[in-house]
Amino acid sequence: VPSSATYADVRVVRRRHEGLHVENERVGQVLTEESDGVGVRVLINGQWGFAATSRTAAEDLEAAVRRAVEQAHAADGLGRPIRLAPSLAVQATYATPVKRDPFAVPVSQKVDLLLHATRAMADGQKGIKGEASMDFYRDTKVFANTEGALIEQTLTESGAGLMATASDGADLQRRSYPQGVPRAIRGQRGDFATAGYEHIERLELLTHAPRVGQEALALHAAAPCPATNTTLIVGGAQMAQLVHECAGHPAELDRALGAEASTAGGTFMEPGRRGTLRWGSDLVTIVADATLAGGLGSFAYDDEGVASQRTVLVDHGLFVGYMSSRQSAAELDSVSSGAARADGWNRVPLVRMTNVSIEPGETSLEDIIASTEEGVLMETNRSLSIDDRRLSFRFGCEVGWEIRHGRIGRLLKDCTFSGITPQFWAECDAVADRSSYRLYGIPSCNKGEPLQVAHIGHGTVPARFRNASIGVR
Amino acid sequence: MSDLSAFLEVLGSPAHLEIVEEHQELLRFAESSITYQHSENRVVVRARLIRDGRAAWATATSLDRDKLHELRQRLESSLALLPPGGELDLAAPDGMISPSITFFDSTDRATAQDRANLLREALKTFPANVTLGGSISHTSVTHQVANTRGLCRSQRRTRAGLQLIATGKHGSSFGRVLHRDAAQLPIQQVFQDVHSGLNGRQKRGLEPGTYRAVLGSQATITLLAIYAQIALGGHQYRDGTSAVSGRLGQPVTSPAITLTDDGTDPAGLPTAFDCQGIPKQRVDLIEHGVLAGVVENATGHTTPPAWRFGADPIPSHLFLAPGAATDAELASACQSGLQIQRVDYVRVLNARQTLITGSTRDAVQWIEAGQVVAHLPQFRFTLRLSDLLNGVEAVGQARQRGDTVFMESVVAPSILVSELPVQTVVGSF
Hints:
The complex is a heterodimer. Helices cover 19% and strands 41% of the residues of chain A. Chain A is an alpha+beta fold. In chain A, a hairpin with a 5-residue loop joins β17 and β18 (392-404). In chain B, strands 7, 8, 9, 10, 11, 12, 13, 14, 15, 16, 17, 18 and 19 form a 13-stranded mixed beta sheet that branches. In chain B, strands 3-2-1-4-5-6 form a six-stranded antiparallel beta sheet. In chain B, β1 and β2 form a beta hairpin. At the A-B interface, β2, β3, α1, α2 and β17 of A face β1, β2, β3, α2 and α4 of B.
């Protein structure tokens, strides 16, 4: 790195991924991936350059540095000088606590569990297709910068899930456990955590498989979701996606500063509105916390060497904070919240969610249902869309249950709800207590250009919303 | 070029091998300033071994022979633990490869300075009170596929792109171009598209309801790509999950729609073969509204393992046949209604019903008496694509090239539709 660079950092990353997918009692995809490389970032005359290479011979690394330096020089005069918020130069090592190394568990044992799970989902019933998958990731990464930081981290992630699809020719319904993802994604389904194989064991796939299959089949006979305004209870798994889209993405500071105009878009949570914008009702508090044990967005240091931390985004309904990187924090004369994350060696760190969670309330879910005269409980995300300022949204859910006179009633299919973020959240009049709390992990959050896929955690509880618009008119 | 036969020897037989060597350069900007740049050199080796009806995939990022030996060991140890599988095979070394030119020096040799200069040119084109965001990219790929049945394919491809979003007093406007040859990138077309959405017309409100609409090329590209993804794959067609299952030879859209998939046509971003090495074939999908075919693995539409967008074959190079109308004639035929530049975050609510939801992004304008007269706020729509495509009244003559994250290229003109539902209108907030 030339002496003209005021800052530089390097990340050496080895990523290992094992993916197993079983469909209808047949082994589908068995995949092991390894990706090794180096990414170098330089700051010269206030402009960034970044280059990455999977070829790690000395001449290839030198060429990468040259390309990064050329970029920074070419950018001269084409941007405001970039500043970095201060950070401690840490030397440390960290590894995800793992009780049982998932890569040491024999493939045969994993496949056997998945085969049994698909068998249990179908349970001899016609028209049911059962899919089950497991994925394991291990990132071993070393970060160093010209300020003296040297950090080695090994992050291990484990996840698994089930999906039953029931078709009668004219109608196709699905049910997932514990979490839903778009139909198209094969594997990477279900719930993930920074943990070892013990996380898979805790999911108890075989216990849940028969129910998942039965519910998928039952949805065929279910009534369609009505198109109306009513009281909506959002279940915990669905809440993970709702918090992700309505609170997580809009509280990314790079978006708020306009840096994501090319693809992701902007946000209604603009810097000038911090401390004054009423984001939701005063029952709602949302935090980003990379220190949560087992969270999919948990680590010791982000990809700029900043320590993991807890940041309040929404405090009793008031928008108060952002997730940030060193660059974006400097724009607000603040310090980084430790949320700069890169998808491997070949991507620049961007502001990404860590574990973005809704704080539990004080009412049990049972009491919330019992105090609901009429409404719908919806659960498990099936589809979602939200506009580029994160205001207008529509979510599709796998399943719904009618609520009448405080009791769960008949099953509903093709459930959707829509709204405008602050208006929708202003109608939140009950948040379930800690007895319903669960930390979900979603390994499929897209952002950036070239595309980066982040692995993110969401601690959730169910919550109730009045005057919600449900169904398709 | 890598020595594929030597690598296959390391893997043993039967085996499939794919090597992608990629050099990607990108400049990204927002608020008229560079936000970051990206340069990446990488190699991806993807191997598939078949043993006794069992199959497994592995990837690595090195061409080192020791790494390949390690990769084979990984695969062999996985295979030994798998239960017996079914009939598995490798692609046959058949078929003709398209002679399309896919590699251009202008793209391969583009420098950081070239990208910076293009941004400077864009900044000069727009007034100072307009801010620019977007990206400029140049990518070169060497793609090789071989297997132990004797198949051996190789192709070098380049890809250049410019995406521009300008934000002015009344909102934002969008333009995008792609080409394999950076020297032929129609940059002025992007500037014109962006200018057209920025002009100084006044804002007016929009009430929920159903409107006639002219969908610009980029909006049409996104919606067609999603329709093709959920409806025009052979696997979906046969298992009944496609909205057009069982309707081969029957009308499925307005007669104004003729849709093909053609990876050999240089009007798109041609690609010679898929990840299995199977040559891309032209497939007539919809002819004058009648379902004519679907894509298959055999037509060169196999998707890679662990692909984020499904395992079934889907179209990769869509073309909507042009009509006779100029853009002005489409607006004139619309009389009063919406003009939509692009749509964003379009997601499928129910694939079998082609029910989607999404929002507009950047310029949305109001057409009155055949003329664009005002800017409109953004809105959300939820609709059945089959209904929308049944309501296509006219197709424009000027096509643009675009893409999606799951489709290499889509070429389409603007279209006039009879009914576009407007649901939630997002005003100022």
